[in-house]
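Quick check before the chapter quiz. The format below is the same one you will see on the exam, so make sure you can read both the input and the output lines.
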Amino acid sequence: MSSHALAHTWYMTRRQLMAILRQPVFLVISLIQPVIWLFLFGNLFKKVVELGGFGTTSYLDYLVPGIVVMSALGSSMWAGMGTLEEIERGTLNRFLTTPVSRGALMNANVVQNGIATAGQSALILLLGRAAGAGYPGGLGGLLVLVGASVLLGTVFGALSNALGMMVRQRESIIGINTFLLLPLTFLSSSFMAPSQMPGWMRDVAAFNPVNWAMVAGRSALSADPDPQLVLSRCGGLLLLATATVLLSTRTFRSYQKSV
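Here is the expected output.
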């Protein structure tokens, strides 16, 4: 990407970040669900670690990485709604009449989502620490978890943008997200250790990118990380993120030709 395109991407990213900062209520609401998961689920299921297979004696230690990843998934899946709003207000079409880089118009949404995901993840980790969670993997493990979450957010944020460009209806995005969110959540190790899951669920989870982010993050945060496991799962997420960003760019070009 040229320096010209990078400058345009950063300009468009700042524009979107400023729009979020002007809505502090939205920022507060975005943290309510993670807090509920953290304190409600953390206390409700804290004795489940006695079943074994969690790799820790504290369910909160196991739960926090899952909440970080699930929050990244939940927020990024709605990125396409912002794209639809830009289309409906005519903002996107007006930008098409300017010299701004076409790639920046789509990539800024992905960059903004990544920055928001990183900030949200850091806050959840701080709340988890305040609640008593331990992070034996230290700063390196925390950075891997946040990085995996950002990659996952990029995958589903870019995919949501592509869907927004293709369907161009809010109801369709809402329906697709509602259909996908629960299966992606429960066909992963977000709340339960893989050894306690039915065999068929473990098999499906092995192909679930949401689970890849959780596995990579939990391994990196453990006292004895598995570098090969972390690299393979993060590498898979990076490949998926690249593919979905290319898909969203392609759908944007199709939209551009239609206006």
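If your answer matched, good. The two ends are 25 Å apart (CA to CA).
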